[in-house]
């Protein structure tokens, strides 16, 4: 039984807290949030301790691990404090918006044996996982192309966008990690196309993009494509396609119920896609907690670690630079 | 090269004539219809002879075989004349509306070596055929249940209905034959439910039904269900489902093109089902001609013969009796 | 907040207990089982009281309602005691295996204002519900045919089958209720076909059937078909199809994840159907508790009541009689 | 009735000849091929004249139009001779492998009123067409992203590859035209990734690629992605996806028959995709002839013209340059 404290009681922190509380091999040590009221609400709802400060969390002797779901600017500090306190860390992406700060942290914590896991939850989705397993099992032969479709149901609030670090670090970063996971090989070049189509005024103000396409390649010639949009009127679109020498496998969107209608107008299905990430990746978030507990309990490597988080950020930076300079970026330029 | 004359230049006769004309191993000897103008039109369009009478057809020395697509009351006579003239026969269903007359014909032509094939075209559909092949190949183990869905896009004209012999002899007869084909065993009991829902006034006048469900069983306990409707607003619905001890196989409806639309209202496909039997079973009608030619050329048994046509009619009669008497009919009662 | 005690801590009772414990507007008052150990385990796991006897439950002042998930022979007594104690009842199907006993109970509790709800959970499935809503909203016009496919993944243990009351009262009863729910009109005739194909020896010994097809009709001419099998190697098959004058709607099987594989062999999806009723109808079981709580809290009618349970049993009896006597049964014969 | 002569009796020429012969408003004037035997075979099979030389074709007074399906190096000359002879031209892609020669031809034929249509057949596919119509009808709002998947079932023979002009001019050119057709706006930048994965030795020898991904963008910020492979073990994969502000539409692959199999291993469909372009785009090739006839008969503009062929080639050249130089190419660089 691993005792985990949750830092951050926003939407995703609350979800994690509940998942940990319900997990048979984990225990929710308590929760913390700079907004005491948010923390109190979650603590009360789940019947656990509310930590008065982050200091209290890192000092607490009964806490084995921390899940960091606070705002991005706090991640670097909290990871470092977790490592210093010998508490395993499960940190939401991104590690930070600055690759420089992430690199500096890497140096400071080099050699630590404290597990640090990154919350790239899509790796744990049963559908995407089955697609990858098909690849690893040789079902589709050698991998040639990866096509990732990842579109949000609707534009996030302006306040969120403004502090998000931009679409590549906020949204595409998940797909960049998933592409690496599927490619089984490091990305060497990045070309991105970024447009302002959903909310041009907001994007102009933030110097951000809301519809982007990314083209990745590896040393052996594998290719990956990511298509992102901040808005997909038909719902949260999450698909992964792998083409190999012997076949293709697609992790398709799953509809919650399947009622087909057949009339003179044709066939239709009215069911929506699962609304957003908490609903869509419910199983994956559960699995994530279990894998973190496994790693902490057994001292085995985390399934996705600090370096994965750093590389995903580096690829996101490459995307921004590609759009800004209108050219293909060699990943080696950013190291 | 088999030379085939087509009797009857209605919708289905015209289609057969064109198929024969286009067939690499068949030759269209000519066409006949009591409506000279219809025959002339087809003969001219295809560049073949118009026979002035059925007598002329059966007397023609260059004609190897006849395809009978005339009105139902002429079938018995034309089959018999084909047999007498030593010309192979491919006859559209039903043989006749009267089981008595069919039984009498059976006696009169007993022992003939002239091939007589019945136009139960659905047996030759690639989809239904693949389902049956899966069964024969042991993919789904022992057969337990057959579910046939067969619904016409819209009610036929009153004039057609009036002389059709009723839904069971006109429409269900195809499904009764298909059920036998799939069951691989004779039907022993028949229960039918018949309703007047699409056009109650017409049905009342004709003492006919427009929505029917039929339940069949065999000696070994296999069960088959047929659901028919004279109207399916969404198109010509033709499905066959086979449940066995090891699995299920379904020959589903095929849409001509597959354009999926995804909006806030859900997912839809606007394509219609193929409109009606000529479009839906185009491949099967082609295959049918080829199999008939094979049988005639090689002297091999026809794939579906006179006795199949007789039994299908007998089962149709059992359906009518079941509805009329509100009870399950043992097929043995009608023999 | 309604306080509900659960009687019976078998598989389904445990599930209901957990659902009630997790429900925002319900409270789990405690659990009871004649096997004290089973009850203790559930009580401990959920942190609630273990009642020492059913008497204790019905006498408990804080208990507003009881959920009866004990073995079938106890249902009649427990319903009656619930009614006498003024505690609302949610009872698993069937009420009893004997229509006579059910009719007698009906007389004894006639006029009670205590809510009695039957656990016909499929009515609450989002998919089946959406199909029915499409019908009620006029999307498919007048209803003509209902086709219910309902097949269990594998044969239940012999011990279960032996005391189940037979397939029609144990398994088909759900579909009979669902057919009534969809038809919107009482069933007037029943024809059933019953076979011994999955486990002939066991079926012979129990005088039961394992593959059955049922044909129902109503006064207005609507038709319903139910196909059941105690074994479907491909999983728990649960589909409902409604044909109407303007179209068709199908509540299809939903796969949990959708990974399509495309190779030289064709396209495949390896995902299984949800294994069995607890997984397949998880949402429906949750909804059921909510609707029961609504009815108890607001004094509104239960969505499916004692009389629904009685009629479903009567139709199941009609099925048995139809197979035994090889004939169509008028429902009026059994009243 | 337009009289069309077919130049070139290879696989695609033969198909066109047969389509023209069968077309109600077109007449096959005859065929020509430098391989007299090939031409003779087609001429005999279809009962038409065999032209002894291209000169004879262009001089023939009864010939209204020519369909050019000869080898690519002859296209420029034949187009020019068609224009000089006042015979409408339907030319297979590409116009030529050299953009310079195409530009020169453009100058020489500038101002001609003779219709020149390019055989970009995919524009005429009912599925792709319905997707575009949905866009034009406003169903998916403003267009944001286009995703084209286009993969051949298997590597062409080495001899074909060697003289093909490379994958971008031979294969991708179809998708580049389709992307322009869907985007409704000119492409401004091109980035391509090219790999040698299917047959590395052959690709190395020809300095060609067999797995490529192309990223296109337009002035307004629309993005298009093309994924190509010379081999897709599962068949000829042809899909088009359009994302817009109000939804998404996908022209999916259509299977010829739809037999679903459900076993303990999951669900599968064994049907193959239509094998290759002649089967897959049969309807589109038919439609193409009809549209060409329309343009010639009515003097209306051709639906896809010389300039479309020129721009597609220019984009193909941009793809090659992008791979060679590892950078994004502005289309303006090539004009």
Topology:
The structure is a homotetramer of 335-residue chains.
Chain A (H helix, E strand, L loop, with lengths): L1 E6 L3 H12 L3 E7 L3 H11 L7 H6 L5 E4 L6 H10 L3 E4 L7 H10 L7 E3 L7 H11 L6 E9 L6 H5 L4 H17 L3 E9 L4 H7 L4 E8 L4 E7 L7 E8 L2 E5 L7 E5 L2 E4 L7 H4 L1 H17 L7 H20 L3 E2 L5
Parallel strand pairs in A: 1-2, 1-3, 3-4, 4-5, 6-9
Antiparallel strand pairs in A: 6-10, 7-8, 7-14, 8-9, 10-11, 12-13
Helix pairs in contact in A: 5-12, 8-12
- Tally of domains of chain A: 2
Shape verdict of chain A: globular
Distance between the termini of chain A: 39 Å
- Can you give the mean pLDDT of chain A? 95
Describe the biggest sheet of chain A?
7 strands, mixed
Looking at CATH, the homologous superfamily of the largest domain in chain A is: Dihydrodipicolinate Reductase, domain 2
Give the largest chain-chain interface (CB within 8 Å).
A-D, 38 and 38 residues
CATH class of the largest domain in chain A: Alpha Beta
Helix and strand pattern of chain A? EHEHHEHEHEHEHHEHEEEEEEHHHE
Flag low-confidence runs of chain A: none
Number of strands of chain A: 14
In the CATH hierarchy, the architecture of the largest domain in chain A is: 2-Layer Sandwich
Structural class of chain A: alpha/beta
Regarding quaternary structure, what we see is homotetramer
By DSSP (H or I, 4+ residues per run), the number of helices of chain A equals 12
**Estimated share of beta-strand residues of chain A:** 15-25%
Placed side by side, the strands forming the largest sheet of chain A appear as: 11-10-6-9-8-7-14
User: If you compute it from the alpha carbons, what radius of gyration of chain A comes out, rounded to the nearest whole angstrom?
Assistant: 20 Å
- The CATH topology of the largest domain in chain A: Dihydrodipicolinate Reductase, domain 2
């Amino acid at each position: 039984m691993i005792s985990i404290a949750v830092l951050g009681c926003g939407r995703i922190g609350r979800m994690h807290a509940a998942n940990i509380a319900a997990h048979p091999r984990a225990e929710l040590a308590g929760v913390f949030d700079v907004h005491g009221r948010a923390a109190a609400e979650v603590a009360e709802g789940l019947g656990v301790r509310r930590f008065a400060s982050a200091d209290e969390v890192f000092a607490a002797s009964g806490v084995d691990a921390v899940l960091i779901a606070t705002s991005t600017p706090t991640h670097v500090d909290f990871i470092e404090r977790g490592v210093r306190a010998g508490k395993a860390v499960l940190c939401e992406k991104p590690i930070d918006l600055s690759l420089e700060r992430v690199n500096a942290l890497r140096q400071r914590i080099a050699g630590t044996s404290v597990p640090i896991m990154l919350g790239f939850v899509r790796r744990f989705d049963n559908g995407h996982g089955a697609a990858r397993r098909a690849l690893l099992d040789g079902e589709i032969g050698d991998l040639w192309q990866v096509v990732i479709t990842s579109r949000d149901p609707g534009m996030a609030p302006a306040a969120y966008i403004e502090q998000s670090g931009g679409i590549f670090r906020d949204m595409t970063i998940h797909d960049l990690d998933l592409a690496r996971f599927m490619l089984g090989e490091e990305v060497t070049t990045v070309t991105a196309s970024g447009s302002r189509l959903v909310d041009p005024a907001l994007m102009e103000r933030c110097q951000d993009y809301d519809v982007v396409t990314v083209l990745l390649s590896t040393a052996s010639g594998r290719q990956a494509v990511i298509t992102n949009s901040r808005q997909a009127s038909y719902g949260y679109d999450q698909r992964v396609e792998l083409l190999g020498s012997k076949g293709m496998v697609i992790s398709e969107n799953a509809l919650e119920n399947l009622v087909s209608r057949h009339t003179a107008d044709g066939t239709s299905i009215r069911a929506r896609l699962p609304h957003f990430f908490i609903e869509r990746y419910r199983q994956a978030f559960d699995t994530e907690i279990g894998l973190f507990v496994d790693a902490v309990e057994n001292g085995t490597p985390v399934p996705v670690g600090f370096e994965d988080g750093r590389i995903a950020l580096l690829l996101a930076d490459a995307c921004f630079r590609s759009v800004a300079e209108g050219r293909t970026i060699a990943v080696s330029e950013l190291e």
